[in-house]
Amino acid sequence: MPAAFVIADVTVTDAEQMAKYREWSTKAMQEHGAEILVRGGAIEVLEGDWQPTRLVLLKFADHATARAFYDSETYRHARTLRENAGVMRMLIVDGV
């Protein structure tokens, strides 16, 4: 079964509130066995007009586990903490 990846493009508008979100999202990641591959860091755009400011890349065992992370009570709480703290674009993609 292929691995699944959660990719998030985050624009932070309230760093203090976003820190509270990160605390709870980290708990949800741990609960679902996520491997953090990227969480911030330097970004160099090679092509196109995409201008992300912060990227997150998480690896999960499979698509169902990635979806369970997103739908979990812990992550739902994290999302409520993130309200008005920034803009989140997130997806799940299957891979190897």
Overview of this protein structure:
Helix 1 (15-31) packs antiparallel against helix 3 (73-82). This protein has 3 helices and 4 strands, in the order E-H-E-E-H-H-E. The chain has helices spanning 15-31, 63-71, 73-82, and strands at 3-12, 35-39, 54-60, 86-95. The chain has 96 residues and is an alpha+beta fold.
| Strand percentage | 25-35%
Largest sheet: 4 strands, antiparallel
Overall mean confidence score, pLDDT: 96
Rg, please?
A: 13 Å
- DSSP E strands, number: 4
What's the total helix number?
3
Strand order of the largest sheet: 2-3-1-4
Poorly predicted runs of 5 or more residues: none
Q: Give the helices and strands as they follow along the chain.
A: EHEEHHE
Straight-line distance between termini: 9 Å
Fraction of helical residues: 25-40%
Computed structural class: alpha+beta
Q: Can you tell me the overall shape?
A: globular
Short précis:
The protein has 96 residues and is α+β, with helices and mostly antiparallel strands.
Q: Could you give the topology of this structure?
A:
Blueprint: E1 3-12, H1 15-31, E2 35-39, E3 54-60, H2 63-71, H3 73-82, E4 86-95
Antiparallel strand pairs: 1-3, 1-4, 2-3
Helix pairs in contact: 1-3
Comma- or semicolon-separated keywords:
3 helices, 96 residues, single chain, alpha+beta, 4-stranded antiparallel β-sheet
